[in-house]
Design brief:
- The chain has helices at 2-18, 40-46, 77-88, 117-120, 256-269, 286-292, 310-314, 335-342, 405-411, 430-433, 453-465, and strands spanning 50-59, 96-108, 112-115, 125-129, 135-137, 139-144, 149-153, 176-181, 189-200, 210-213, 225-227, 233-240, 251-255, 275-276, 279-283, 300-305, 321-325, 328-329, 349-355, 358-364, 367-368, 392-395, 398-402, 420-425, 441-445, 448-449, 470-476, 482-488.
- The chain is an alpha+beta fold.
- Among the domains are: 168-269, Trypsin-like serine proteases (Thrombin, subunit H, Beta Barrel); 278-368, PDZ domain (Pdz3 Domain); 392-488, Pdz3 Domain.
- It has a seven-stranded antiparallel β-sheet. Strands 22, 23, 24, 25, 26, 27 and 28 form a seven-stranded antiparallel β-sheet that branches. The protein has a six-stranded antiparallel beta barrel with strand order 8-9-10-13-12-11.
- Strand 8 (176-181) and strand 9 form a beta hairpin.
- The longest helix is centred in the N-terminal third of the chain and has 17 residues, at 2-18.
- Its EC number is 3.4.21.107.
- Residues 266-357, 400-456 form the PDZ domain.
- Residues 1-33 form the signal peptide.
């Protein structure tokens, strides 16, 4: 509208200056892209493939009377407090059925349905309700909590109408999308909006990569499809941000690019089989990028490598910055877990790392991620204490001493952790700002392994002579969890 007013104003000024009488006439608006006139035909062809998912679950009974909210000081507050305290003293343990509703969609005419894991999690009975009134019992073929996806199977009397996945990587911010689902149990409901953003991380899991849309998504839409204007499923609606529980135009969908591989594995194996590299990584900040000579912040910084893991076998080292995996760029840290998870287990891929300012190409063969595996902390025996006080070094805002059995015992440092020990940190220093504390261990300075105080001094002095302002330091806590920090020189 602002553009139209500007055009009209300019035409008026030009006509008056020429002294010519101009009759008022309709002025064509500028050619602007607009949304579709109607999605009726598109919706009509898709809605029969979208189902309402109803579940029931048996839970331990309770009186289930919610405590009402009353203002502090209200004359009813004492009454309600007394009443509900009595209720809590008289629990009712009779089991009861809890119902819930969600959405899903057919991807195979034989009866394969996709929905969200949280829609069916813990359910005793699952029913798929179709647009024509058909109700079919569903069984779970597989589910994955990390991507919030589940695959169901029904036994239809005749082939179902299946939907196709589209390529979510081709989506652009501003593209039109359409959602169909079961909001608040109302049945097949169509809403339209645009792609508001891509690659959203909402801190729901390690593989967050959501499509954000302003198409109305409400409770009950979970598990329903998000379509492009070609009628392809490019997302599975899974979450909203809302203080009220209703749509405020911020909804999130799992992109098809993330879902396709997970769905295939759930159908074939009943579980996910993700790739595993065996590295501990951290975000590359601007300060760390400068200290490593990277230029701009990019990639995933390797803070630790699992012994005997695929990364170790490939020669990946702590301090490497992984910038490419299997031919795809690693723009930021959270890109790498998704790329590794999608990698084919047992098939060699190229990994490009930046090591001491130069790119190095390596080959690694991803293993299989065991979801319940955790690195075990190294056991340590208790050696006798040493009476002698070791010499110390004050540098970069820290007081450092050589590792001794006594210090290892004092701070509970695992036997696998080696380096020099931090015994004090100067308040307000760069070390303090980066969360270094007494009991931490300095493992590397300027990507050089340190075992003594002299090992710490040499790379710092070299960096100062080069005119550097920051130096990368690898720090370990007592349990052997590593991370890089960039410390200012001159502290």
């Amino acid at each position: 509208m602002a553009m139209m007013k500007t055009v009209i104003r300019r035409l008026g000024l030009a006509a008056a200056a020429a002294g010519v009488l101009v009759l008022a006439a309709p002025i064509a608006p500028p050619a602007l892209a607009r949304g579709p006139d109607s999605v009726a035909d598109l919706a009509e062809g898709l809605i029969d493939s979208v189902v309402n998912i109803s579940t029931s679950q048996t839970v331990a009974g309770s009186r289930g009377v919610p405590l009402p909210e009353v203002p502090d000081g209200s004359p009813f507050q004492e009454f309600f407090d007394d009443f509900f305290n009595r209720q809590q003293q008289q629990p009712d343990s009779t089991p009861r059925k809890v119902q819930s509703l969600g959405s899903g969609f057919v991807i195979d005419a034989s009866g394969i349905i996709i929905t969200n894991n949280h829609v069916i999690e813990g359910a005793d009975e699952i029913t798929a309700n179709f647009n024509d009134g058909t109700k079919l019992k569903a069984t779970v073929l597989g589910h994955d909590s990390k991507t919030d996806l589940a695959v169901l199977k029904v036994e239809p009397a005749k082939p179902l109408k299946a939907l196709k996945f589209g390529d979510s990587e081709k989506l652009r911010v501003g593209d039109w999308v359409m959602a169909i689902g079961n909001p608040f149990g109302l049945g097949g409901t169509v809403t339209v909006g645009i792609v508001s953003a891509r690659n959203r991380d909402i801190n729901s899991g390690p593989y967050d990569n959501f499509i954000q849309t302003d198409a109305a998504i409400n409770r009950g839409n979970s598990g329903g499809p998000l379509f492009n204007m070609d009628g392809e499923v490019i997302g599975i609606n899974t979450a909203i941000i809302s203080p009220s529980g209703g749509s405020i135009g911020i909804g999130f969908a799992v992109p098809s690019s993330s879902a396709i591989n997970v769905v295939a594995q759930l159908r074939e194996f009943g579980e996910t089989r993700r790739g595993w590299l065996g590295v501990r990584i951290q975000q590359v900040t601007d300060e760390i990028a400068e200290s490593l000579g990277l230029g701009q912040a990019r990639g995933a910084l390797v803070a630790g490598v699992t012994e005997d893991g695929p990364a170790a076998a490939a020669g990946i080292q702590p301090g490497d910055v992984i910038v490419s995996f299997a031919g795809r760029p690693v723009v930021q840290m959270r890109d790498l877990p998704r790329l590794v998870a999608d990698a084919e287990i047992g098939k060699a891929v190229e990994v490009v790392v930046v090591r001491k300012g130069a790119e190095v190409t390596l080959k690694t063969t991803p293993g299989r991620l065991e979801e319940n595996d955790e690195a075990a902390a190294a056991a340590s025996s208790t050696p006798p204490a040493e009476p002698a006080k070791p010499a110390d070094l004050k540098v970069l805002g820290m007081t450092l001493v050589d590792m001794t059995p006594a210090l290892r015992t004092q701070y509970g440092i695992a036997q696998a952790v080696n380096g020099v020990v931090v015994t004090a940190v100067e308040p307000g220093s760069s070390a303090a700002d980066n969360g270094i504390e007494a009991g931490n261990v300095i493992v590397e300075v300027a990507q050089e392994t340190v075992g003594t105080l002299e090992d710490v001094q040499k790379p710092i002095e070299a960096r100062q002579k080069e005119g550097g302002k920051l130096v990368p330091v690898l720090v370990a806590n007592k349990d052997g969890d590593f991370r890089y920090v960039a410390l200012r020189l001159g502290n």
